[in-house]
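Replying to the earlier thread about multi-chain prediction with a worked example.

Input:
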Amino acid sequence: MQAYPLSEPISISQPQVLQNQVVVFSKNYLPLARINIKRAIALLVTGQAETLEFSSTRQWEVRSPSIVLLIPEHIRLVGGNPERHWKVPPVNRREIFRRDNHACQYCGSSKRLTLDHVIPRSKGGTHTWDNVVTACEKCNSSKSDSLLHEIGMVLRTKPKAPIHPAIAFAEQFWKEHQPLE
Ligand SMILES: [Zn+2]
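Result:
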């Protein structure tokens, strides 16, 4: 990637090119996120990222009145990882509801949601990501202080703590890019 005159506004003549997305990698070559091409252009022209070429990397041509940019499908940040300060979110209604997609983890309802301790606090259950789930009032009150196996209730998904968004993205990225056997 050469240097481009920063004073020149980039006006793009082919709007369909802007539909494309670019995968941004960390300095250590971990895929971090998919970003839109405008953001990628900004990172490239300000020197915060560089082209990363795999054998399969495509490039898109973006033209302004006087310059042509070749924007690759993959770029790599030159500086440190901007997500390094991420922490596991606190266990509260907002975060638990978000993880559970605002659905009761027993019946799937999205109405009258509450927090439920899978192992009740009265039986030593902890207020942690792996023991707190979203439950509707109805399921919560029929469960009461019982353990799931005592009353035959089943969780739709196993509760766990959110992982770093970049790690989640990396796992998904490599899953999609596994070589065919
Ligand atoms: Zn329910």
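DSSP finds five helices and eight strands in the chain.

Feel free to reuse this layout for your own posts.
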